[in-house]
From TrEMBL:
First-listed, main subcellular location of the protein, grouped into a coarse class: membrane
Subcellular location: Membrane
Role description: Subunit of the oligosaccharyl transferase (OST) complex that catalyzes the initial transfer of a defined glycan (Glc(3)Man(9)GlcNAc(2) in eukaryotes) from the lipid carrier dolichol-pyrophosphate to an asparagine residue within an Asn-X-Ser/Thr consensus motif in nascent polypeptide chains, the first step in protein N-glycosylation. N-glycosylation occurs cotranslationally and the complex associates with the Sec61 complex at the channel-forming translocon complex that mediates protein translocation across the endoplasmic reticulum (ER). All subunits are required for a maximal enzyme activity.
Name under which the protein is recorded: Dolichyl-diphosphooligosaccharide-protein glycosyltransferase subunit OST5
Membrane topology annotation: Multi-pass membrane protein
Family as reported in the entry's similarity comment: Belongs to the OST5 family.
Subunit annotation: Component of the oligosaccharyltransferase (OST) complex.
Keywords, alphabetical: Membrane, Transmembrane, Transmembrane helix
One example of a Gene Ontology biological process annotation: protein N-linked glycosylation
Transmembrane segments: 25-44, 51-76
Domain of life: Eukaryota
Pfam families per UniProt: Ost5
GO CC annotations, alphabetized: oligosaccharyltransferase complex
């Protein structure tokens, strides 16, 4: 299958995001708030179990929340 055929086949199925554009700001804000809370709790008790139960989810929530906030607010130059 050539690249042109793949391009034409992809035009029949448009991309539909998992989170709608109207709700990306609230999802991003809630993820960043969750990251702040879990990161603070992790800072209070830094143990190996805390890394798995609080540190790793805080890092994921922070990363995904930041991406959602950038997508919701846009980048203006």
């Amino acid at each position: 299958m050539s690249l042109n055929e793949v391009w034409e086949a992809a035009s029949a199925t448009p991309f539909i995001p998992l989170i709608a554009k109207d709700s990306q700001f609230s999802v991003g804000f809630n993820l960043l708030l969750l990251a702040l809370v879990t990161g603070t709790l992790f800072g209070l008790n830094r143990s190996f179990l805390g890394i798995v139960s609080l540190g790793f989810p805080a890092a994921l929530a922070s990363g995904f929340g930041a991406v959602f906030m950038i997508c919701a607010a846009g980048v203006y130059v």
